[in-house]
TrEMBL record:
Keywords: Cell inner membrane, Cell membrane, Membrane, Transmembrane, Transmembrane helix, Transport. It comes from Agromyces seonyuensis. The keyword RNA-binding does not apply. This is Autoinducer 2 import system permease protein LsrC. Pfam families: BPD_transp_2 (PF02653).
Amino acid sequence: MTQTAPPSPAPNAPAPTARRAGRSRFGGILRLRELPVAFALIVLVVVTYAANPLFLSPQGTKDLLLNSTIMIILAVGQAIVIITRNVDLSVGSILGLVAFGTGSLFATFPGIPIPVVFLIGLAFGMLLGAINGLLVTIAKVPALVITLGTLYIYRGLSNAWAGGTQYFADDRPEAFGNLSVDTFLGFPVITLLALAVVVIVAVVMAGTRGGRDLYAIGSDPDAAKLFGIPVGRRVFTAFAVNGLLAGLAGVLYASRFNSVGATTGNGLELDVVAAAVVGGVAIFGGSGSVVGAALGAVLLTTITSALAAMRVDKFWQQAIVGVLILAAIIIDRVASLRTARRLRISEARDV
């Protein structure tokens, strides 16, 4: 009885393990939360450009980048908080306080150096964020309730401080206003600053123990405590950093827009949360990335500009944002259920 030798692999054919590794890497890319957001953004830009070629004119592109800048910074800070299974609804009020404070500094101290104004704005925002973090970690009350309260407190302080006063572009130094006008390699300077924030925070979140701890806390706070993670301190830090970034956004807001007053930042918090969720940051915590949140911010601001370019009623912008939020939550829930199912199947096979 003769035996047939198994067929030899074809020359230069990849090994089975290599093929499996390639498929695994490709599958991992397809499962990236940021991919659908990036794809939707590209489709939106292409369709809008086809309808109105001026949409991507040099000035139109610059306006798109500038409109996204402040939202990107706010969304990155909000993503840090949401990843810990919390939320901060006071960011719009923090931005408003810092923006008006920036105008006050220039009006009160005309010769104050611009870097000093940035440092004061960052410290002010960080203080307000730290108050949120302190209340959340000490009172053990859901962050949704705490920050809803501080939203109104900070807004009340802003109204009392500003009253009917507004600071306009003429009240600030020309060099400060030029931050949102000047470009470097074709990109607005403040947009490059926002991109630097995204890169730095993304590296910290992915490459440091503190960043990984935030994901662990969001996934299971009780388990994180058992593993020795200082949950209270990490959550406090997340809120403080979020406040710092809101402070930075407030200073840039004072540079970008013609006026700041008591109503600056009103209603902005919901757009910020929407940007983070649409960008793939799970509202239940534990997953997502600041890069996705930044893409979500760009997508939402681009929707606004695209609808304006196509002369569509502003109502549809709000409707589309609502649909995107629901879609993001549903997709995240389905993905979580599928992951849990795969884990159960894998455990059953091991048994």
